[in-house]
Design brief:
The protein is of the alpha/beta class. Helices cover 45% and strands 11% of the residues. The protein contains eight helices and five strands; from the N terminus they run E-H-E-H-E-H-E-E-H-H-H-H-H. It has a five-stranded parallel β-sheet, sandwiched between helices. Helix 2 packs parallel to helix 3. The C terminus is likely disordered.
Length: 244
């Protein structure tokens, strides 16, 4: 596939997944933070987009990663920024699928607002694969706890399996925060503490709340169905504001 779009709730590891892809593939990696492309000067935003793809072609095999891609490629006709984002979207579309072919260049986009992306980006030949990164299940949560407690001296009463069971709806970033808070709680109780106990984790759980509720999870799953079933129909229903 030429392009892959990762979407899901915040903190589920979209950016981390792109980093892992870059390391495993041993390809050149260009990371683009969406808002950094936008400039107040006319033509500068489009020029920056062209330069990114020019570098990628020269350094192929290459992966271009657009973090928060919704900030530079929202639906056209909805912005109030003097058509800057519209021109950037047009430039992005021509770079991905224009006359200058992309050889050994893959584009990865990450967003937690796929509903506001321009639908022209979502057709085959541009972002061919649309992948949802859901909230982790129990087995994955346990692995995340193991990673973040690997260098942490845990008391014997701390059972990782129990906390993995109790953290339904917690994203990877939330679990990292729980482990960090538990360590801070242990130090607040005693600055010379040698281990982190179950009580510290219980207090951290009360402080850190889950970021992926049932409603949020359902919304993203509904979006997944929308992309797979109604993509073409939505593109047909889109009408320009002005025909000229």
């Amino acid at each position: 596939p030429k392009g892959i779009l990762l979407y899901g709730p915040p903190g589920t590891g979209k950016t981390l997944l792109a980093k892992a892809v870059a390391k495993e593939s041993e390809a050149n990696f260009i990371s683009v933070k969406g808002p950094e492309l936008l400039s107040k000067w006319v033509g500068e935003s489009e020029k920056a987009m062209r330069e990114i793809f020019k570098k990628a072609r020269q350094a192929s095999p290459c992966i271009i990663f657009f973090d928060e891609i919704d900030s530079i490629a929202p639906k056209r006709g909805t912005g109030s920024d003097g058509n800057v984002t519209e021109r950037v979207v047009n430039q992005l579309l021509t770079e991905i699928d224009g006359l200058d072919a992309l050889h050994d260049v893959v584009i990865i986009g990450a967003t937690n607002r796929p509903d506001i992306l321009d639908t022209a980006l979502l057709r085959p030949g541009r972002f061919d694969r649309i992948i949802m990164t859901p909230a982790p299940d129990k087995a994955v949560r346990m692995e995340i706890f193991k990673i973040h407690t690997k260098n942490m001296p845990l008391a014997k009463d701390v059972k990782i399996e129990d906390f993995a069971e109790r953290t339904e709806g917690y994203a990877g970033a939330d679990i990292e925060s729980i482990c960090r808070e538990a360590a801070i709680m242990a130090l607040r109780e005693n600055m010379s503490a040698k281990e982190v106990n179950k009580a510290n984790f219980d207090l951290a759980l009360k402080k850190v709340r889950p970021s992926v509720t049932k409603d949020i999870e359902k919304m993203y799953k509904d979006l997944q169905d929308h992309f797979t079933q109604a993509r073409a129909r939505e593109m047909q229903e889109e009408k320009p504001v002005y025909f000229g």
